Structures are given as structure tokens and as C-alpha cells.
Amino acid sequence: MTALIVLIGGAIYLFFYFTYGRKLQSEVVRADKDRLTPAVRLRDNVDYMPGQKMIVFGHHFASIAGAGPIVGPAIALAWGWLPALLWVWFGNVFIGGVHDYLSLMASVRYDGKSIQWVAGKLMHPRTKYIFEIFVLFALILVIAAFEGVFARLASTNPTVGTSSFLFLVIAVIEGLLLYKTKLSFRVASIIGVLMLIGAVVIGFVWPFLAFTSVRTWYVLQFIYIIFAASLPVWIILQPRDYLNSYLLWFGLALGGVAALIAFKGFSWPAFTTFSAATIVAGKPAPFWPAVPLVIACGALSGFHSIVASGTVSKQLDNELSGLFVGYGAMFTEGFLSTIVITSIGAFGFVVLANFKEAVTTAGVNLDQFILGGKYLG
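RESULT FIELD:
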């Protein structure tokens, strides 16, 4: 069953990428390889910097694939694994992937301007200001959430802080290898991946960044944010996400192979209810219209338009690369969510049963967790 689901998911994404995606590219976007992109036409080697297609894909994929495509599908299993899978597959193909691709190309056609600016241009000037205010507060919330998670992790586990620090140093080196040396793209990539593996190993063997203060990690992160936002994209932003995508690829490959060779049936129910399943914080919610809010990354996420228009559109070297970067990265994220649903559907009860004594001792009601994700809100 696990192998069948993974194969069906992969086949759906491949089929629609080469059919529906190509139709969008030729008939809706009308992409033209001879039309100069903003990255080429407005190149300043700071924000506007054309990158190799795989590098830009890695940057976009790593930027959109955070915790969302993992946590969201896990919560949505309260409705059953089948509704969650159908939304991840077809919601992605016909809505999420289209949204990502078209928001990217809309920005490309308007000199790499933000999606807020494009909305104001095409709809009404007032729309731009409303959208900008919303995006500002949304990004503040996102930064605060991830800052808090990382600060707590790094303060209690020096391996996290050490590997992350080394990873940033490696990203700068990788940027220099890609753009300031005569090394080929393949050689520079291999060196970067080897350095990335070394950073992880050193983090486990010699975790030298052992700051136990959460506040210290908050300060360090804010300093990093200022530098990352100010430096040219090729120095840290682009190579950082490109290398980070290899971690995601490794996880995808590992999960995909495990699902293929497991040949295990689903222990989780295919369907529970379309009405009031207890999803988050013990509150009941119907499958529709709640599912787009629960499974955002992996099927449909408006945040992706901020990424696509904020940085990615300024790095696209050719309009024909937009389908691979925008549509393709969203499909890859959907495949990640497919593996998450498959893994939990097949092994979720087994894993929870193995840890039942431990979580009960910690004061967690496992039955409530299984029935509705009570502790995920």
C-alpha cells in the first residue's frame, strides 16, 4: 500500500507537470526564452542576479518547504488519510502549483516587483497598501515563530547551533566557489555537499557553540538576519538555500525508498468524517473550507507568492525556467507531503503505541492526540 501510494503520487505530479504545466507555460504565461528576465535586464549582482536553474530551484524549494508540508498533513489525518492525500495531489496540481508559478511569472513580467506591488498595479492602488500591511505583520509572526523555535533548540542542544553556524560559513564559501572561481557547477556543488556533511558531523562530534541563554541566540539570529538581508544574494542567501535543498532531497529520497520497500498497509483510517473533526486546539472543524488552512504548504500556500516575487523572480535566468522553479518546486513539496501522509498512515499507530508509556508519564492523553491533534495547536 505504501509503495502504491508513493508511485501514484509521483505519477500524478509527473503527468500534470508535463501536460497541464506545459499548457500553462505556453498558453497562459506564453513564456519566451528570448524575452530578457529582470535578473538579466536589471542585473546589479546584489538583488538582481541570474542563477543556474538548479540553484534557483533549490533556493525556492528550501524557502517554501519548512515545517508546513510535514505538520499540516499530519494534522489533516484527523479527517482520514484519503481526503488529505486528494487535497495534496489535486489541490496542488490545479491551485497551489498554479498559484506559485503564476505569482512568480507575474513578478518577472513586472521587473521583479513584489506581489503586493503587482496586486496594486493590476487591481487598485489601495490593494497594494492593504497587502503590504498584511505581509509585514505576517512576516513578523513567521520570523518570531522560527526565531523562538531555533533559539530554544540551540540553547539546549549545542549540536544545533554549531552545525547551523558552520552551515552559514559553508554557504559563503559555496557562493565564492560558484561565482568567483572557475570551478564547474558540478564540482562546486559536490564540494558544497561534502562541506555540508562535514558541518553536520562536526556538530555531533565537537559542538563548540554551547550558549545556554535563549536571549543570546535571539540576538545572534537578529544580527544574522540583518546581514543576510543586506548582502548580495550570491554571498549567502542563494548558496545557503541551494545547499539546504540537498538535505530536503536526502529526506525525500530516504522516505520514498522506505515507503517503496515497506509494502505495508495503512493502519490509519482512510476516512473519518467530512464534518466536525477535532483538528487543532481541541476545536472541531469541517474538512471544507478548513483543509486549505491546515494543509497549506504542500498543497496551497499564499506565502509562496511572497518568496516567488521577493527574491526568486530576481534570480530567474530565463522565462522557460519558471515552470521548473515555480510549478516544479511546489510539486516536489507536495511529494514530500505525500510521503508524510503515507508514513503516518502506515506507521503512525505503531510509533504512538511504542511511546505511549513515555507520553502518558509526561501527562499527554494519547487518545486525544490520535483523535484530533489536541496538542498540535
